[in-house]
Amino acid sequence: MIKRALIYIAFFTILTGLKEGTPQKLKHTPHRAFKAGEKLEYSLGYGFISAGTASLEVTDTVFDNKKLFHIKLTGKTVGLADIIYKVRDVYESYTDPGTDLPVKAVRKIKEGGYRYYNEVTYNRDSSTITSLRSGVKHVPEETLDILSAFYYARNHYFNQDLKKGDVISFVTYFSDKIFPFKIRYVGTEVINSRFGKIECYKFAPVTEVGRAFKSNEGMYMWISKDKNRIPIKVKFELVVGSFVCNLENFSGLKHPFSSIQFSR
Q1: Quick check: helix, strand or coil at residue 211?
Q2: pLDDT tens, 123-137?
């Protein structure tokens, strides 16, 4: 149970359980939802049990003489979960600030005795990727990695243009294979958080029943309905129980956190 839960602590790894969808041409808008210096910190809980923590951070960097964003997701177990099954997972994406497309992605996994490491570079001129583990492969144009896909959606898809039932589709390269996925917009909802009541966009990825999730909509994700569009809460309805990931701290936001509605 702990092993399954902590694998899901990395928000975007759960997307590998999504049903495949038809990829769409990427939409690009002038909106900027984040900047270098942004840091988001989360807790993962199973009922009243604290199981892990995660953080998302954006910094400036230089790669091949180009100025890029370095987006980093880290997830780890804490407390009893750390004793039973230690997890130290790191996902990294280096993206072009102009296009939001990835230039390089890194995945470093430490789960119990299991180890996995890979680097993938994206060759836009030839529509190929170069994987440290498997070499050069052709991929569809505008292919993203799993982490940059979420940040791309923050800039260009999570906005007032959404209509209930709309589907957002991407093509990603993950775990050394091409994987299309889609998430469905459910609507808006005001949720309680440690910061007060927050108005959010609500999304439900379409997931496979039986492998881990209890129903076709085994996960919900709430994104702040402001210019920052940050994940406030993620809930996993798994076969073994319900896990919740909550935003605990934030810093370096590009815009004021204007969607907060404090209780009177």
Answers
A1: coil
A2: 999 999 999 999 999
